[in-house]
Amino acid sequence: MKFISELPNIVKCLYNEKHHFTIHEWKSFYCKPAESILMKNTLEDFLNFVKDNKVTKHIVDVKKCTDTFTDEDLNYITSYLVPKEIEYGILYLANIVSEDIVTQVTTEFWQEEVKDGLVVRNFETIDEALNWLNEK
């Protein structure tokens, strides 16, 4: 895996060169105001990588999350980040779901908000997600 960017204890963005997909490993969705700015900068670096490298497949791993975004950050994800991912070429998104019900509800909400132009599937394991993405 190639490192793209990271906000420690929140999210790490990586790239798998062999299978040509990016991944977000989320440890927490909740950001204090100062962390929120850093999270957005981290994800902006990720977006630039996607654009520059013509990435079409992405994994969002939220398995370790047990919390939710602030309203402001959730709005950023649904109205800016995911539309930019689509604009820059992401076609397929595999989501590794959390067992935490609050995180599941958050995940389902943003998925309902961003359907246009993105095929999203939920999986329990990274192996299931990789199998699906490798078919694409």
Structural notes for this entry:
The chain has 136 residues and is an alpha/beta fold. 44% of the residues lie in helices and 24% in strands. Strands 1-2-3-4-5-6 form a 6-stranded mixed β-sheet. Strand 5 (92-96), helix 3 (101-113) and strand 6 form a beta-alpha-beta unit. 30% of the residues are buried. The mean pLDDT is 88.
Main traits of this protein?
136 residues; alpha/beta; 6 strands; 44% helix; 24% strand; globular
Strand order of the largest sheet: 1-2-3-4-5-6
Oligomer: single chain
- SSE string, helices as H and strands as E: EEEHEHEHEH
Enumerate the spans where pLDDT stays under 50 for 5 or more consecutive residues: none
Give the gist of this structure:
This protein has helices at 33-53, 71-87, 101-113, 126-134, and strands at residues 2-7, 11-16, 21-26, 57-61, 92-96, 119-123.
Secondary-structure blueprint:
Elements: E1 2-7, E2 11-16, E3 21-26, H1 33-53, E4 57-61, H2 71-87, E5 92-96, H3 101-113, E6 119-123, H4 126-134
Parallel strand pairs: 3-4, 4-5, 5-6
Antiparallel strand pairs: 1-2, 2-3
Helix pairs in contact: 1-2, 2-3
